[in-house]
Amino acid sequence: MILSDADILVRLADGDLAIEPLDDVDQQVQPASVDLRLGERFLEFQRTNIPCIHPTESDEVGEYVTETHVPEGEEFILHPGDFVLGTTKERVEIPDDLVAHVEGRSSLGRLAIVVHATAGLCDPGYKGQITLELSNLGTAPVALSPGMRVSQLTFTELSSPADRPYGADRGSKYQDQDGPQASRIGEDPEFAGDDGGADDDGGATGTDEDSATGSSDDGRANPGDEY
């Protein structure tokens, strides 16, 4: 069941669903979704002379992107064919019995701007800002302004709460992310034997205690993270 505006407002009032800051409820809460605004930070992919990017090599991925800060009131110009990572201004917390889907706004779609390539899912238990995969599929540059409504979230109720929700207990690598985050695919369990993401015991390494662990105690592999 997809939540209506009334359902969303009840969940927000109860506190199990959180979207902060939600500065204009009347404008942002739509009939069956919530509009999210563009944040001020962007990760731009640099044109490089290296033959390819190896996703499992974290150093290569880090060297391929640079962060740009654009304060509200200024513009980020997205040129035709460009791909950048942006972020929502809002931080969300998804309860264990909901899954959220990130969608673009039709008004921006009609300008050939898309907000995600594949990562359109927020799992039950996810907390943090949402990384947006921004592309310009058109023929003209488009000015994006931090603070503008750029995407929307819809919410679907699960038949039962997730038994193993997204989070540190399952080694979810994008939990509590702040700002746009580059790919951490090198921490995935299938790359545990590569130099880009393995420690001595075979678990994928990360930068903090919430890094991916490769599999759960019951032997099930952790799924990919989509934020």
Task: Please specify the SSE layout and strand pairing.
Elements: H1 5-14, E1 18-20, H2 25-28, E2 29-30, E3 33-37, E4 41-45, H3 58-64, E5 65-69, E6 76-78, E7 83-93, E8 98-104, H4 106-109, E9 113-114, E10 121-122, E11 127-136, E12 142-144, E13 149-157
CATH topology: Deoxyuridine 5'-Triphosphate Nucleotidohydrolase, Chain A
Order of helices and strands: HEHEEEHEEEEHEEEEE
Rough outline: globular
Arithmetic mean of pLDDT: 84
Q: What is the CATH H-level superfamily?
A: Deoxyuridine triphosphatase (dUTPase)
- Count of helix runs: 4
Which structural category fits the helices and strands? mainly beta
Sheet-strand content, in percent, reads: 25-35%
Number of separate strands: 13
| Termini Cα gap | 22 Å
Largest sheet: 6 strands, antiparallel
Provide the number of structural domains: 1
Q: List unreliable stretches of 5+ residues.
A: 194-224
CATH architecture: Distorted Sandwich
Q: Helix share of residues?
A: 10-25%
Return the CATH class: Mainly Beta
Compute the gyration radius: what is it?
18 Å
